[in-house]
Design brief:
This protein is an alpha/beta fold. The chain has one domain: Pyruvate-ferredoxin oxidoreductase, PFOR, domain III (Pyruvate-ferredoxin Oxidoreductase, domain 3, 3-Layer(aba) Sandwich). The chain is 37% helix and 25% strand. The chain contains six helices and six strands, in the order E-H-E-E-E-H-E-E-H-H-H-H. Strand 4, helix 2 (75-81) and strand 5 (85-94) form a beta-alpha-beta unit. It is globular.
Length: 185
């Protein structure tokens, strides 16, 4: 099993953290992992993405241009990376922030109202965990308990009081994607 993922959005949406959680969780399961962040000089509000690879075999290079999964949290990211999804791959996007939805018909596409749901949880920063939960429901590449342990390692200790809310957001994403119909050809 190898899953090559790019997660993209604005700085401050937790894009890099999502990839780090996947990598730390993968290491707990003795998987081979790679995490390659990319962000503009603006940080918050600028664009950010990270290529994350989780595999049972050695990762030859973190630099890839085609992905098994794209997770897009804003319109510029969707516009930039939609074409990078491998045929038959998966694209998850935050439908609250996307005006022009994906148009490809040779991939699985899921729109999740993650920003709206994060607002309903009274914490807009839960957007990333909602999207990560949705991804893990469709692509269960790692055990849920290891995701929680990876999150504990990534989240600074001063924010560990938010671990239960993060778990709730992960589960909410898993629930939401089951209610969403995929669109494919």
């Amino acid at each position: 099993m190898t899953q090559e993922i790019i997660i993209a959005g604005f700085g401050g949406q937790g894009v890099l953290s999502m990839g780090m959680v996947l990598c730390y969780s993968g290491m707990i399961e003795d998987k081979e992992v790679s995490w390659m962040p990319s962000y503009g000089p603006e940080m918050r509000g600028g664009t950010a993405n990270c290529i994350t690879i989780v595999s049972d075999t050695k990762v030859s290079s973190p630099i890839i241009s085609k992905f098994d999964t794209v997770i897009a949290l804003n319109q510029p990211s969707l516009d930039k990376f939609e074409s990078g999804v491998k045929v038959g791959g998966t694209l998850l996007y935050d439908s609250t922030n996307i005006i022009n939805p994906p148009t490809r018909t040779d991939i699985e596409v899921y729109g999740i109202d993650a920003t709206k749901e994060a607002a309903n949880m009274d914490n807009p920063k839960m957007l990333n965990m909602i999207m990560l939960g949705a991804f893990l429901q469709k692509k269960p590449i790692l055990k849920f308990e290891n995701i929680l342990e990876g999150l504990k390692q990534v989240l600074p200790e001063r924010y560990h009081h938010l671990l239960p809310l993060n778990e709730k957001a992960l589960r909410k994403g898993m629930e939401l994607i089951e209610a969403v119909s995929k669109t494919t050809a």
